């Protein structure tokens, strides 16, 4: 009898304790900062000594492969640069040079000169130098130097982006925040090698805001790709995690409210079939290819346009249909409405979905509640009124 | 009361049907609910267990196909029992069921003296059966829309598809909760009713749960025996019709599961943007300004050229100076660098021809200097 009762109590508890647990992933993205570890040194060879020759215009050296190397340093620009203003000496970086004549250089061309010199940056900027070692640029460079396919000797090293002689300050030394002038320089810097992408970016909603209106709220290249440890953006892992990248800004009300942009774009995406699938892939098999779209598959990557853009904006139904047809070639006019366009269902937007959800929000508790009450009555009867009535 | 007497409750075919259905139902629930709650850790673990979301979806669709096959079979089997064997339609809900439910509840809480006496199917069983019918219909209709969204959007507004997804998920939750609460309680926990497995109930169980049916059985009115010729006649009418109908349903089912290739399998190629597209380099190094060429003499050309290109260093360096014509011809601490009339033998030409000297002369300039030396350096 006792055993039976405990079973009944257990059942009651079991029936009432159906709870569903949700977990949220929190992303913390550390920010990399350039912090020089070394101070100007008192050194034997003064900058004036070097500039006696290198301050002269048209100091040109012809390298063995026929390329010319421009050796003139503009003393005024140098003095205005972050290194010049900091009082650093030429020979702190050009450590092999102690006097004239200079030691023989083995560089065959201009690229060799850069590649031989840039590791000198790590003397002071070891943190960022090491970050670059993990970058897609370094991987490409390593491949090229090993003669492996897919490499490129022109893959950026420190000095390609930061002209060591003329680079002015990029960040506020106190807050470490990027200066507003520097914001604009970022895409232009990347454009030196990625000009085709830059051409798309500058026409995009982000690029226009940055380059025409100097708006610091929009992403530059590094906000999505990172700075020194830039990862290969063509991997599947990067693709499936990219919605989180967009979400960093697009779920931030402080940034979005100014422009009246919804911050529901991520959770509405995740609630949809596409987003749910992509998230599961991201968590469980980030390297496996999935054909479900991420933000950029519909909105574009570097050429993202305003949603109301007549040619490409996804608020325009024909444009949305064309976008759907990229993956659903047989889709017809009604089909794009199957996607809720980032709106949370409400009586105004997507009412049918709203009312179906509302129906089940009422119907499920009603039915299950009725069943629970009925079963509870039965349990009550069996626990406390045994033997009474015709049982 | 005879407790050894047993009564047949479910035929073997019904029991097999139940097993197939429960396997497909559970499979659908365990592969489907994690999709509804995909963000939750438990759902993540379950999906991983099934081998990832794509595999879980495939399993879900196989189980759905099995459930639909069961539905087609059930429909045909019920039609046979009703049309051919003319059994009593004891599963139909009646007003009496509502009264029984109310009375049972009042009895449980002590407000009625008697439990109601019920027949072959109690109101609890009818609730469960008709819930299953309703649920299966909703799931098949909404499932079709999700399985074939492009086809569905040809006939319905696009919003029907996310609405179908919402209904599919709501209905699934309702079904699973109902099974856990209603079914588990009624036939597993309250008293383990094994008749769906053994096919039989004891007389005691019959008396307790289905007293009216037991009375009918004892009175000989529970079944309506059909004589063989009538049965054959009805079968002859029923079987072709049922056959056609079943084939139509099965064809519909085949259409359902194979009709649409919703999306392309492979990703669309990303629009070709050349990743490495260096800008035309700014014309660094700026080309040296061509010097005005006068007579090919020290005054006319060479002196100015040396002053410009060499004097930065060679005021003193290596003891060599190009300040005046005489200084230039005097040479360095290591000897003369210009041998008038012998350009090839001149150190200056040797050094500059090797290239890479600071203040490097251009090829054109060097040629002129050579010419000047060969002309005895006027």
Describe the model.
- By secondary structure, chain A is mostly helical.
- Chain A has 20 helices and two strands.
- Chain A has helices spanning 2-16, 47-54, 75-80, 82-85, 90-93, 110-117, 126-133, 136-146, 158-161, 180-191, 195-201, 205-213, 221-225, 236-250, 253-256, 265-271, 273-284, 295-299, 317-327, 351-384, and strands at residues 60-62, 68-70.
- In chain A, strands 1-2 form a two-stranded antiparallel ribbon.
- In chain A, a hairpin with a 5-residue loop joins β1 (60-62) and β2 (68-70).
- In chain A, α16 (265-271) packs across α17.
- By secondary structure, chain B is mostly helical.
- Chain B has two domains: 6-258, Up-down Bundle (Fumarate Reductase Cytochrome B subunit); 265-378, no CATH class.
- Chain B has 15 helices and two strands.
- Chain B has helices at 12-36, 41-49, 53-83, 95-108, 123-147, 149-155, 160-189, 195-198, 203-209, 211-219, 228-258, 298-309, 325-330, 347-354, 363-374, and strands at 6-8, 200-202.
- Chain B has a two-stranded antiparallel sheet.
- The longest helix of chain B is centred in the first third of the chain and has 31 residues, at 53-83.
- Chain B is rod-shaped and about 145 Å long.
- Chain B starts with 5 loop residues before the first strand and ends with a helix.
- The chains are: A mainly alpha (391), B mainly alpha (378).
- Chains A and B meet through α1, β1, β2, α11 and α17 of A and α2, α4, α6 and α7 of B.
């Amino acid at each position: 009898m006792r055993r039976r009762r405990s079973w009944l109590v257990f059942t009651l508890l079991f029936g009432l304790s159906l709870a569903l647990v949700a977990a949220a992933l929190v992303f913390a993205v550390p920010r990399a900062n350039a912090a020089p570890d070394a101070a100007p040194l008192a050194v034997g060879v003064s900058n004036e000594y070097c500039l006696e020759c290198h301050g002269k215009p048209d100091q040109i050296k012809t390298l063995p492969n026929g390329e010319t190397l421009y050796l003139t340093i503009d003393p005024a620009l140098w003095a205005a640069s972050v290194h010049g203003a900091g009082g650093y000496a030429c020979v702190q970086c050009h450590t092999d040079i102690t006097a004239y004549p200079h030691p023989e250089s083995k560089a065959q061309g201009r690229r060799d000169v850069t590649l031989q010199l840039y590791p000198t940056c790590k003397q002071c900027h070891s943190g960022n130098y090491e970050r670059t070692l993990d970058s897609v640029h370094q991987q490409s460079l390593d491949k090229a130097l090993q003669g492996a396919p897919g490499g490129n000797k022109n893959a950026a090293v420190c000095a390609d982006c930061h002209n060591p002689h003329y680079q002015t300050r990029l960040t506020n030394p106190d807050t470490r925040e990027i200066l507003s002038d520097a914001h604009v320089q970022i895409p232009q810097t990347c454009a030196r090698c990625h000009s085709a992408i830059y051409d798309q970016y500058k026409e995009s909603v982000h690029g226009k805001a940055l380059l025409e209106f100097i708006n610091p709220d929009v992403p530059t290249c590094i906000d999505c790709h990172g700075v020194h440890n830039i990862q290969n953006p063509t991997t599947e892992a990067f693709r499936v995690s990219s919605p989180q990248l967009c979400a960093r800004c697009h779920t931030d009300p402080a940034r979005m409210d100014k422009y009246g942009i919804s911050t529901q774009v991520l959770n509405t995406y995740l609630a949809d079939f596409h987003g749910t699938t992509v998230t599961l892939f991201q968590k469980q098999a980030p390297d496996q290819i999935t054909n479900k779209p991420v933000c950029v598959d519909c909105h574009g990557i570097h050429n993202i346009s305003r949603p109301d853009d007549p040619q490409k904006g996804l608020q325009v139904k024909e444009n949305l249909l064309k976008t759907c047809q990229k993956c659903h070639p047989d889709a017809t006019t009604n089909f794009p409405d199957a996607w809720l366009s980032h709106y949370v269902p409400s009586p105004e937007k997507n009412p049918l979905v709203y009312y179906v959800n509302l129906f089940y929000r009422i119907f499920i508790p009603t039915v299950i509640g009725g069943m629970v009450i009925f079963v509870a009555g039965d349990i009550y009867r069996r626990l406390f009124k045994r033997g009474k009535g015709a049982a | 009361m005879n407790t050894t007497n047993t009564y047949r409750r479910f035929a073997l075919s019904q029991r097999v049907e139940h097993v197939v259905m429960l396997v497909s139902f559970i499979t659908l629930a365990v592969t489907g609910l994690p999709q509804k709650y995909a963000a939750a850790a438990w759902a993540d673990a379950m999906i991983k267990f099934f081998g990832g979301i794509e595999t879980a979806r495939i399993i879900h669709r196989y189980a759905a196909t099995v459930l639909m096959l069961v539905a087609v079979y059930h429909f045909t089997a019920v039609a046979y029992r009703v049309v051919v064997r003319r059994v009593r339609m004891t599963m139909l809900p009646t007003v009496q069921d509502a009264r029984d439910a109310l009375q049972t509840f009042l009895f449980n809480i002590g407000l009625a003296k008697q439990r109601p006496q019920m027949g072959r199917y109690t109101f609890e069983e009818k609730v469960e059966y008709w819930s299953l019918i309703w649920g299966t219909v909703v799931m098949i209709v909404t499932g079709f829309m999700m399985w074939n969204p492009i086809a569905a959007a040809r006939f319905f507004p696009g919003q029907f598809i996310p609405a179908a997804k919402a209904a599919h998920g709501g209905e699934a939750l309702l079904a699973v909760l109902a099974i856990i609460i209603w079914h588990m309680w009624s036939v597993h926990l309250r008293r383990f009713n094994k008749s769906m497995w053994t096919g039989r109930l004891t007389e005691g169980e019959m008396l307790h749960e289905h007293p009216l049916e037991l009375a009918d059985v004892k009175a000989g009115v529970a079944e309506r025996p059909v004589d063989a010729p009538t049965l054959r006649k009805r079968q002859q009418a029923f079987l072709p019709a049922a056959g056609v109908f079943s084939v139509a349903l099965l064809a519909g089912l085949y259409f359902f599961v194979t009709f649409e290739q919703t999306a392309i399998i492979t990703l669309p190629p990303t629009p070709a943007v050349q990743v490495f597209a260096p800008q035309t380099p700014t014309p660094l190094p700026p080309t040296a300004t061509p010097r005005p060429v006068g007579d090919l003499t020290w005054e006319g050309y060479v002196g100015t050229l040396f002053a410009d290109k060499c004097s930065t260093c060679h005021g003193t360096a290596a003891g060599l100076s190009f300040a005046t014509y005489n200084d230039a011809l005097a040479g360095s601490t290591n000897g003369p660098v210009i041998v008038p009339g012998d350009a090839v033998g001149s150190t200056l030409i040797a050094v500059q021809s090797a290239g890479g000297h600071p203040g490097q002369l251009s090829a054109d300039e060097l040629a002129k200097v050579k010419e000047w030396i060969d002309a005895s350096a006027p």
